[in-house]
């Protein structure tokens, strides 16, 4: 089964600054390349294995606000130019912000609402 077929959430191109805190190393000022309700791709990070967990902070900056979304991540794919993380254990505010980012960039709010509702039913999503 291909990665695209396994995905249950819409993924959108999205560039933001992130900090990843693994047990023995912290990466600051990383760049994301895409985002979904349950995952993010981060560029320029190497040397980690599938299954490793980390703390993830996404920084959303705008003309009137600066937000920091916090969650846990698990490495699900390692590539030459970075890695992909499954996101879980996030607070409700962070989850709502992710939902709004996806809805705005996808342009299909009904699809995002359906994905959002499915994620709320999973026990490891919201803490």
UniProtKB/TrEMBL annotation:
Please indicate which superkingdom the organism of origin belongs to.
Bacteria
Q: What is this protein called?
A: Type IV pilus assembly PilZ
InterPro entries referenced in this protein's UniProt entry, alphabetically: PilZ_domain
**Molecular function, one GO term:** cyclic-di-GMP binding
Q: Which residues form the PilZ domain?
A: 5-102
């Amino acid at each position: 089964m291909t990665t695209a077929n396994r995905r249950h959430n819409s993924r959108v191109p999205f560039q933001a600054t992130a900090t990843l805190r693994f047990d023995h190393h912290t990466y600051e000022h990383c760049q994301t390349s895409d985002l979904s309700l349950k995952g993010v791709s981060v560029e320029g990070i190497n040397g980690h294995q599938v299954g490793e967990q980390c703390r993830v902070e996404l920084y959303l900056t705008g003309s009137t606000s600066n937000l920091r979304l916090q969650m846990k991540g698990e490495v699900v794919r390692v590539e030459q130019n970075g890695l992909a993380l499954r996101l879980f254990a996030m607070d409700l505010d962070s989850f709502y912000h992710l939902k709004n980012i996806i809805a705005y960039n996808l342009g299909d709010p009904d699809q995002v609402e359906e994905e959002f509702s499915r994620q709320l039913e999973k026990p490891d999503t919201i803490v």
